[in-house]
């Protein structure tokens, strides 16, 4: 390895000779005194050189071009001047990656730059402290998702991303060449995670990409996203919502515990609730109308309406349950008491939907009826319907949008900030 320690560990190695590695962040030449800030993914440290004390060859390399990649051997010492309380006295500096072209923008953040420019040079943008904080938090989110579900007895599976028909209805699919067959990129793992449950793996979870060919230009949609899904058999919508509540709270707790400096960087404080309240769709429609917001029962909530509900409730994390059947996907189980309502639900965080789910239809006759109700041809879903003719348990599940929850937890207004290399209507590079 070219380094022995990361910068964050240097304060624990005071007086010992260690080797750090990273990028030149800033340089200052005060004549007899030289300062260079070294940056790696864990932080920034001040490297200090002084004429008459430091080796001449070392001092000569302390005026390197910013973003040059180097290793620095030396000792960490306590400092009353350095912001971190630690500075680094170098004995050897080695250049291992030269800068041979103009850096497109200031990594330090001193000069504002448009998002599109940053995304064109994402490999440089990721060196900034804000993207670094976002992707550390995103890592903790998905890590806790997996850990919590494993502790609850779920098993990870990997569904296909190549499908022969729409998995959620509609025509917004990306067609692909698949030998001599017609195929598409999957909108969702929905049908296949249900088939896993029907097959006997009755508590499954997955992290998988989903592709939606929707020509939108919003701040909260992408054409390629990562979904964190579960499906559980011998269960109804209430059971699945219980799991969703446990997972959501556990994710918030982990990020709050492990990412305090990142949350401070992003100015994104987190409050962890003890439980998640559940509000029916009908009760929220009544709440809106009671407060002067005219809203007709049966409509889907818009982003503006969701923001208004968030303001009226004053709750960061809550669920919306018992939706109108016509608003939801064809596989959502209608209520036994009123088929105009189905056992579907959304998880809302800071006014934005971050997860959606439902109890699924496992009875073939009801499924065929709902396919037709939603304007779909049952013949296109024969393989799916047949799966429920061989003995299928009641089951339910949900999906969390990874970029969507990261956007809200990281206090971002544009979801593109939370995708490593975002894909939208116009962007397919880098």
Structural commentary:
The structure is a single chain. By secondary structure, this protein is of the alpha+beta class. It folds into 2 domains: 7-97, OB fold (Dihydrolipoamide Acetyltransferase, E2P) (Beta Barrel), CATH 2.40.50; 129-418, Bira Bifunctional Protein, Domain 2 (BirA Bifunctional Protein, domain 2), CATH 3.30.930. The protein is 28% helix and 28% strand. The chain is built from 12 helices and 16 strands. An 8-stranded mixed sheet has the order 6-10-11-16-15-14-13-12, with helices on both faces. It has a 5-stranded mixed β-barrel with strand order 1-2-3-5-4. A hairpin with a 2-residue loop joins β14 (341-349) and β15 (352-359). α4 packs across α6 (237-258) and α4 (129-151) packs across α12. The longest helix has 23 residues, at 129-151.
Query: What characterizes the major β-sheet?
Result: 8 strands, mixed
| C-alpha geometry | elongated
CATH topology of the largest domain: BirA Bifunctional Protein, domain 2
Query: Briefly, what CATH class of the largest domain?
Result: Alpha Beta
Cα Rg: 26 Å
How far is the first residue's CA from the last residue's CA? 29 Å
Give the helices and strands as they follow along the chain: EEEHEEHHHEEEEHEEHHEHHEEEHHEH
Query: For this structure, what is the CATH homologous superfamily of the largest domain?
Result: Bira Bifunctional Protein, Domain 2
Query: Helical percent range?
Result: 25-40%
The helix-and-strand class reads: alpha+beta
How many discrete structural domains? 2
Low-confidence parts lasting 5 or more residues at pLDDT below 50? none
